[in-house]
Amino acid sequence: MTVAAVIVAGGSGLRAGGGRPKQYQLIGGRPVIWWTCRAFLEHPSVSHVQPVIGEGHEAMFAEAVTGLDLPLPVIGGSTRQESCRIGIEAVGRHRPSKVLVHDAARPFVSAALIDDVISWLDRFPAAVPGMPVAETLKFAPGGLVSRTVDRASIWTAQTPQGFTYDGILAAYRKAEAEHTQGLTDDASVAEHAGIAISMIMGEPENRKLTTADDIVLADRDMTGRQLQARPDMRVGQGIDVHPFEEGDAVILCGIAIPHARKLKGHSDADVAMHALTDAILGAIGEGDIGTHFPPSDPQWKGAQSRIFLMKAVDLLEARHGIIANADITVLAEAPKVSPHVAAMRAHLAPLLHVDPSRIAIKATTMEKLGAIGRKEGIMAHATVTVRLP
Ligand code: MG
Prior knowledge:
Helices cover about 30% and strands about 25% of the residues. By secondary structure, it is an alpha/beta fold. Strands 1, 4, 5, 6, 7, 10, 11 and 12 form an eight-stranded mixed beta sheet that branches. A five-stranded mixed beta sheet has the order 16-13-19-17-18. A two-stranded antiparallel ribbon has the order 2-3. α3 (about 80-90) crosses α5 (about 165-175), α5 packs across α6 (about 185-190) and α8 (about 270-285) packs parallel to α10. The longest helix is centred in the middle third of the chain and has 17 residues, at about 210-230.
């Protein structure tokens, strides 16, 4: 039995603020859509995951799902109905017997709910999870209550909505041929085609993120879940120093700061990023930068230090670890670091998969004492806390 999942991410979702569609905003250090796609990729019964994205979102999507084993996305249409039809047509190449359609903006979908929807499809041609309405419903046109609606048998609909593949494909094609528009979910398309749909119990956590407040709460919730699943806390420390040589800029945490000198080293000599990398490697007992990138190896000459950092993060994440915080101190008489701290934090956050608020970068001089005080080079210290399962 082949089960395909279509992840619908076509919306521009700007109601949530934040300058980008809600499905690309960060919660728990990753874009919303990353969590959603991963939930389906990791599910043992789902064999194919097909994202449907908005036109012009290709680059944003590619960046958001880095590291996930996904096919190229398909580009959706101008309505949700159209985007779903395109996604459902696209998975036809895998000849699925069942298809699930899920909103990208529901990242808290559980494996148990996905299981439930799939197994109900053995008995019904369509299954839709939802929640029975608990509050009293008023019908109030123009703001005046005209009557109380009987809420018995009233449900709100969630996703993933599941269908036998051939049934929903035919229903979408029928709606398209009839030019039926404005069907806001897949179940409406199935209803329109007369398909019997089973309503099954959804989960309150499986909410759709819509507003800016939803994103803030989801960030807190996702972060909390990640931390709770990783009670093993480790601290790592890293120290590095590089001397100056002739040049015109120093690179610190990936940011080039104009200066009369540059730092000398085999790579780009990003002393702060090296200290940070060693701190992460230290926290997980994986040696240091030199272990993984021997300075004797010519291939690392002039290398960007983000390669080293990403290796350390990969090793951490291979053990299902996450970074809880990083605290970096740069010791330098010059150049002045503080004007660049915001840019450095913004640069490091997506590499570490954390919110910038979990990264601290501080700078101090050595009051003209010692080699650093004599402006012979720059030193950096870093402390990192990681959490492991
Ligand atoms: Mg170094």
